[in-house]
Structure formats: C-alpha cells, structure tokens
Amino acid sequence: MAESTQKTDYVVGVDLGGTKILTGIFTQQLEVIGRTKISTKPERGTKAVIERIARCVQEAVDECELSFKQIRGIGIGAPGTVDAGTGQVLFAPNLGWQNVELKKELEAQLGLPVFAENDGNLSTLGVYHAELESKPRHMLGIFLGTGIGGGIIIDGKLYKGFNKSAGELGHMVIDVGGPKCACGNRGCFESLAGRQSLFLKIQTMVKEGHKTVLTEMLGPELNNMRSGDLRKAIRKGDDLVEQVVIQAAEYTGIAIANLMNILSPEVIVLGGGIIDALADEMMPIIVNTARDYAMLGTDKGVSLFASKLGDDAGITGAAVIARRETQ
Length: 327
Description:
The protein is of the alpha/beta class. It has helices at 46-63, 102-110, 119-131, 189-193, 195-207, 214-218, 227-235, 239-263, 273-293, 312-326, and strands at 10-16, 20-27, 32-39, 71-78, 81-83, 88-92, 97-100, 114-118, 139-144, 148-154, 157-158, 267-271, 303-306.
C-alpha cells in the first residue's frame, strides 16, 4: 500500500489471551485488512510477553505493507482486571500478572498511543458494533477461551460499574467448593467451563484409567491439546470427551440463566475458542439449559446465539476503542 496514505486511515486491535496473541490491522470503517497470530508463552514472564505483543504488532503492520506512520493508535484487550484510564493490568490470573503497566510499556516499545481494556469487554464491543450494528439496547457477551470473559452493554453503552471491573462473568461461583480457579476461589464458572479446566479434567480422568481417543491423537500425556481436538474426538464417538463437553455446556447454560434473571438482556452472544470449535455440540445444550433454569418469563424474546465473528471479536473491539480514542 502506498506510503502517501494518511495516518488516520488505520488502527490496530490486539487480543492478548492466555494462549495466543492475535493482532489485526483495521481501516477507520472497521474492516480488517490483515492479521498476525503468535503464542503468548506467559511462563517466560511479563517482559517477554510484552515484547511478543510488540513483535506481533510489528509483523502485522509489515504484512499489510504499511509503516507505523500510517497507524493512528493501538487498542489491546487483556484477560483480567484492567484500569482503562491508566492502561494498567491490575490482575490477570491466567497470565500470572499483577499491576503490570501494559499501556506504558507498549507505548515505549512501539512509539504509538495504546489503549488497554478487559478482553471480554472488547470482544463484547466488537460483536456489538460489527455484528449487531449497535442495535440492541441491552446485551451480554460471554467468551469461553483459556478462561471465561464477558461484557455487559446497558442502554447501548459498555457497563463498567463502580470499580470499573464489571463483566467478570467467568468468576461468578456456580459450584461452592468446586474446583480451584486461577483467581484463587473455588467453583467459578471459569473453573468449570473454561478451556484449561476442560483439558485438566480430561487429563485427570485419563490418569485415573478412563479411555479416550485423544491419547492416540496426542500421546499419553495429552500435550498440546486444542479445542478442535475435543471436536474431533466427539465426532469419533469419544464418550469421555463428550460427557466433559456436555457438562461444560450445562454449566454455561446455568450461568446464562443467572445472568438473564439478574440483568434481563435483549441479546446474549457467545464466542471464544471453545464455542468456535464446539458450537454444534454445545449451543443446543446451552440454550435449552439456560431456558430451563431461567425464572419463568425472564427469557421471553431473548436472543441467544453464537457469534459469527470468531477470533475477530476481540481485535475488532480493540480497534473500536483505538478509533474512538484517536478521533
């Protein structure tokens, strides 16, 4: 693309997850023109992860044959509690982060304005603006990935709450005394239906002597398991994996029923890597369970469906705030 293109033409959206970093280059009309994806590798430490984010952005800009002079700003979603005002990640359990100056560090490395927000909030904004064309007044986004994130739209605006931390849907407790969650509590929605919890449950059951075709596909330790592997196993008739996925879908339905009872949204959209890979297997169970558990009348007229944006939800929402903050 020509160097003469004006700087205002492009913004960058970054989705920082516990497993991967996805970056997209967007026009001012929120059309994505290129993407780059690399693994997060949180075990290498905070500094290394921030360097990997910067590298992912640089590679995306290069892939689109652009220069940094043509980029107006960068939006980034992080998995945890984020102070959007300062761009600090206060707590991100799946990264092992506390009080990380994400905005400041990235701006120093990239030389561009950076705007940070919770990843669930940004994925919700992405679906709201790009997929739903900002039409519903009240919406919930629920995203099942490494963990579980979410976002709340009330009266057409992202709801942040008193401490600016609203939307941590993955950390509502569904099973008191249930499995330990990365946040430190037990029985959180995330610890029952997030990808890491599903993988851990399958690995534990295999160690206890249960059989699954996953060991033939991935080896006895089930290393490098992915959401798509669960889909393949189910389609091969794997009862163990099917039961784990069904249970996760039921927990998701119960969580949604609680949220419908409390917030009465017009639209509930699900996304994230688990839903992308297993929508056919999970969505009918999620919908039926949610409607079974919702209080009589609270689910009337409520739309509940899987997002078509897939991986692009987070980067689109990140581009939305980058565009908004640099106009």
